[in-house]
From TrEMBL:
The keyword DNA-binding does not apply. The modification 4-aspartylphosphate is found at residue 61. This is Two component, sigma54 specific, transcriptional regulator, Fis family. SMART domains: AAA, REC. The keyword Nucleus does not apply. Residues 156-384 form the Sigma-54 factor interaction domain. Residues 10-126 form the Response regulatory domain. One of its GO terms (biological process) is regulation of DNA-templated transcription. InterPro entries: AAA+_ATPase (IPR003593), AAA_lid_NorR (IPR058031), CheY-like_superfamily (IPR011006), HTH_Fis (IPR002197), P-loop_NTPase (IPR027417), Sig_transdc_resp-reg_receiver (IPR001789), Sigma_54_int (IPR002078), Sigma_54_int_dom_ATP-bd_1 (IPR025662). It comes from Marinomonas polaris DSM 16579. The lineage of its organism: Bacteria, Pseudomonadati, Pseudomonadota, Gammaproteobacteria, Oceanospirillales. GO terms for molecular function: ATP binding; sequence-specific DNA binding. Pfam families: AAA_lid_14, HTH_8, Response_reg, Sigma54_activat. Keywords: ATP-binding, Nucleotide-binding, Phosphoprotein, Transcription, Transcription regulation.
Length: 497
């Protein structure tokens, strides 16, 4: 089995003391989880190794035979400016340290420095280099506007530009092992995004999913960390936790916003230290999986109320993906509708029904509080009731009727706008407001009077009568256009429905 190397770029250790190379390599692997390491005990070979291998960071000794550290530093900085060089020297002199920084070194440490401090400095350099690699990848994606691995996203049905931008961002962070936070409303497909992140990483380990909602602290610890035999009553055998099962792959923590405060502390320590203790064990294990978390909750609000730790939030949010709701992806509705119709017909052994012309228009005017999951449920229910060649509209019609308040409620909840009338302008008449409302309803319904009448809560004959009266009148300029026109930023139709 191929070993997963972390980080994606290599860390080259250059020192003439082979004992130091061995001890430093062991410390980097055990204390930081770095496995992509290269050794060079002859400074004359350093430049050729950099040319042959994907080196991102160099740990460089200053006092070496053949080529001294300061000369090698200048060569690396000149020929490979994207590489971060950390000088680790036995000389504890401020002047030498300052000279190294002036020459372009990322940092300077003395070999007698506390090991923990040294490891943290190298971790910081790795994070900086990862950010540099990701920025380059993101810039490349933006400039070319293409996807390098479109097959990874084949299962996500979309033609939305916002989703395409999400895919480009995911490809740019594919090489990173830092946590990813996925946010978005329920039903938008956060699980599919987590799967895409895992597939893009090309790690050999599995994707292990854990829904942490409702787990108390003890169950959370046992589920993630596992336990040793005899750790508690009933623990007759050792059990590996989900972290260990996800080794070399991805650990997906769903509904992270519901995690209890005590469990949040445990997760924070796992992310900070990169290690954990199985229950009943006094020997730590390394975290060797990428952590991806998801939530439909607003973690910013939860921080303000004290229900979610700020330090954990920022640890999880090193990479952040916001999935747009279905109401902002109206162009995806025809694709999703056709996909679910085909899927449902195959599963139920029926012929795929024909879609009524007015159905896409009706669906485009719904707010979809349940997003893609709600659409799928509606389509499956409609196909189960389907009898003729054309799909029945009955299953869908309720979303725009007065008997179902979801549309009205969603409109009000999702709009913070208020009708604003400039003080310097006279107020419009009710007739003028009604005309604007009818005009917008017909626009949204794409000329379908039946759908437009449902949108504004009047009967179809009443709407037809208003339209006939309006068309019979000569066109009149609107003196209030600057203040409340239906297409002006001051005016929101949602506030009138």
């Amino acid at each position: 089995m191929q070993k997963n190397l972390y980080p994606q770029f290599g860390i080259l250790l250059v020192d003439d003391e082979e004992a130091f190379l061995r001890s430093m390599s062991i410390a980097l692997e055990r204390k930081a989880g770095f496995s992509h390491l290269y050794h060079c005990h002859d400074s004359r070979n350093a430049m050729s190794m950099i040319a042959e291998h994907p080196i991102g960071i160099v740990l460089l000794d200053m006092t070496m035979p053949h080529i001294s550290g300061d000369k090698l530093l200048q060569k690396i900085v000149t020929e490979y400016p994207d590489i971060n060089v950390i000088v680790i020297s036995g000389l504890n002199q401020l002047e030498i340290a300052l000279d190294c920084i002036r020459l372009g070194a990322f940092d300077y440490y003395v070999k007698t420095t506390e090991e923990r401090r040294l490891i943290e400095g190298i971790k910081r350099a790795v994070r900086m280099q990862e950010m540099h690699v990701e920025n380059q990848a993101l810039r490349r994606h933006v400039l070319t506007n293409t996807l390098e691995q479109p097959n990874v996203f084949a299962s996500i049905i979309t033609q939305d530009k916002g989703m395409h931008a999400v895919f480009q961002y995911l490809e740019s962070i594919a090489s990173s092992q830092q946590p990813v936070l996925i946010t978005g409303e329920s039903g938008v497909g956060k699980e599919q995004i987590a799967q895409a992140i895992h597939d893009l990483s090309n790690n050999t380990g599995p994707l292990v999913s854990v829904n942490v909602a409702g787990l108390d602290d003890n169950v959370f610890s046992d589920t993630l960390f596992g336990h040793r035999r005899g750790a508690f009553t009933g623990a007759d055998s050792a059990r590996p936790g989900m972290i260990e099962q996800a080794t070399g792959g991805t650990l997906f923590l769903d509904e992270i916003g519901d995690l209890s405060p005590t469990s949040q502390v445990k997760l924070l320590r796992l992310l900070q230290e990169g290690e954990y203790y199985p229950l009943g064990s006094d020997r730590p294990k390394r975290l060797r999986a990428r952590v991806v978390a998801a939530t439909h909750q607003n973690l910013t609000d939860k921080q303000a109320s004290g229900a979610f730790r700020k330090d954990l939030y920022y640890r999880l949010k090193i990479h952040h993906v916001e999935i747009p709701p279905l109401r902002r992806r109206v162009n995806d509705l025809p694709l999703l509708l056709d996909f679910f119709l085909t899927q449902a017909a195959e599963e139920m052994g029926k012929n795929k029904p024909t879609i009524p012309k007015e159905l896409p228009v009706l669906l485009a005017n719904y707010q979809w509080p349940g997003n893609i999951r709600e659409l799928k449920a509606l389509v499956y229910d409609a196909v189960s009731r389907h009898q003729s060649k054309v799909l029945s509209m009955e299953t869908f019609r309720h979303v725009l009727t007065k008997e179902n308040p979801s549309l009205l409620q969603a409109n009000l909840e999702n709009s913070n706008a208020r009708v604003f009338f400039p003080a310097e302008q006279p107020l419009p008449s009710m007739q003028e407001i009604n005309d604007l409302l009818v005009e917008e309803a017909m626009k949204r319904a794409q000329g379908n009077q039946s759908l437009a009448s449902r949108l504004i809560g009047v009967s179809q004959p009443a709407l037809s009568k208003r339209l006939n009266k309006k068309s019979a009148k000569p066109p009149k300029s609107n003196p209030y256009n600057c203040g409340y026109s239906y297409n002006h930023s001051y005016y929101s139709l949602k506030t009138l429905i």
